[in-house]
């Protein structure tokens, strides 16, 4: 469980929020944590009040230009580093696909270039783009497990089924050790009938598919944005504690308990 990818191919499911806040939980507990930002939108960087355009090197330079990953890592909080992304990452898929002779194992680039980071950190989180792309394939090849944030809106179940199917297919071909850590409900409002019905349907599907659906969930709130906007850190690292931050501490506790029970 050392390298955890946070993935859903549907946008707006709180992937970045989940990756940064769980990283904040662990950093607060004294663990050495790295977040790899594998999304060219650079939301991880922005979550810590940093401007991605100011970084001279990024994940792209590590993957394509053979820069040592440690040379691109930036410290953003005590015990917490990031490997940032910027607009250069937009060109990753085209660069690799366009040079098939050079990149003979296109899904293994991140594993090859970033494996040295494993010994430097207790945990590594990877924030992924909302797509099933070459970049996501590289993340799946490098990761030990996948945590799936799931917002219970219309058509969300269809997206979840696709993600789980993709993980199964990818695992069989490229990373037999990869497994699904579990599904976590995000932006949940149990006062709406839609959310009640979708979460009930999701629990049934996860049970039948032997996928863990965490009892902990992340409620709908504007406080995530407020924390980033005013304190330049995720909610779990903000000075003022909130119910939102508490929900991520509870989620991590449940993740650990579930892992110990395996």
Strand content: 15-25%
Give the number of helices: 10
CATH class: Alpha Beta
CATH topology: Rossmann fold
Low-pLDDT windows of residues: none
Provide mean pLDDT, rounded.
91
Please give the order of strands in the largest beta sheet. 3-4-2-5-1-6-7-8
Distance between the termini: 12 Å
**Count of extended strands:** 8
CATH architecture descriptor text: 3-Layer(aba) Sandwich
Kindly provide the radius of gyration, computed on alpha-carbon positions and rounded to a whole number of angstroms: 18 Å
* Major beta sheet summary: 8 strands, mixed
Kindly name the structural category: alpha/beta
What is the H/E order?
Answer: EHEHHEEHHEHEHEHEHH
Tally of individual domains: 1
What is the helix content? 40-55%
CATH superfamily placement: P-loop containing nucleotide triphosphate hydrolases
Domain AAA: 1-179
Subunit structure: Dimerizes in the presence of ATP but not ADP; ATP-binding is required for double-stranded (ds)DNA-binding. Interacts with DnaA.
Family: Belongs to the ParA family.
InterPro entries: AAA_dom (IPR025669), DNA_Partitioning_ATPase (IPR050678), P-loop_NTPase (IPR027417)
Brief rundown of the structure:
InterPro entries: AAA_dom, DNA_Partitioning_ATPase, P-loop_NTPase. This protein is α/β, with parallel strands linked by helices and 262 residues long. The protein has helices spanning 15-28, 43-47, 59-64, 92-97, 109-114, 134-142, 156-173, 193-208, 223-231, 243-260, and strands spanning 3-6, 33-37, 74-77, 80-83, 123-127, 145-150, 179-188, 218-219.
């Amino acid at each position: 469980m050392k390298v955890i990818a946070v993935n859903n191919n549907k946008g707006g499911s709180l992937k970045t929020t989940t990756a940064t806040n769980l990283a904040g939980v662990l950093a607060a507990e004294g663990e050495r944590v790295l977040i790899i930002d594998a999304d060219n939108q650079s939301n991880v960087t922005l979550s810590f009040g940093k401007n991605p355009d100011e970084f001279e090197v990024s994940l792209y330079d590590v993957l394509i230009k053979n820069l040592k990953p440690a040379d691109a890592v930036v410290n953003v909080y005590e015990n917490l580093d990031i490997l940032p992304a910027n607009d250069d990452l937009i060109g990753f898929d085209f660069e690799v696909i366009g040079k098939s002779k050079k990149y003979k194992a296109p899904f293994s680039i991140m594993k090859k270039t970033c494996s040295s980071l494993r010994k430097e950190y207790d945990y590594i989180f990877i924030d992924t783009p909302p797509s099933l792309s070459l970049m996501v394939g590289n993340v799946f090849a490098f990761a030990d497990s996948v945590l799936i944030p799931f917002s219970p809106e219309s058509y969300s179940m269809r997206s979840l089924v696709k993600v789980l199917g993709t993980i199964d297919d990818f695992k069989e071909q490229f990373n037999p050790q990869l497994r699904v850590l579990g599904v976590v409900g995000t932006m949940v409002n149990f006062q709406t009938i839609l959310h009640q019905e979708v979460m009930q349907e999701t629990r049934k599907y996860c049970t039948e598919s032997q996928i863990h659906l965490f009892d902990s969930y992340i409620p709908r709130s504007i406080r995530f944005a407020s924390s980033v906007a005013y304190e330049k850190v995720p909610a779990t690292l903000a000075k003022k504690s909130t119910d939102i931050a508490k929900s991520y501490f509870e989620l991590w506790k449940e993740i650990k308990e579930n892992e110990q029970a395996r």
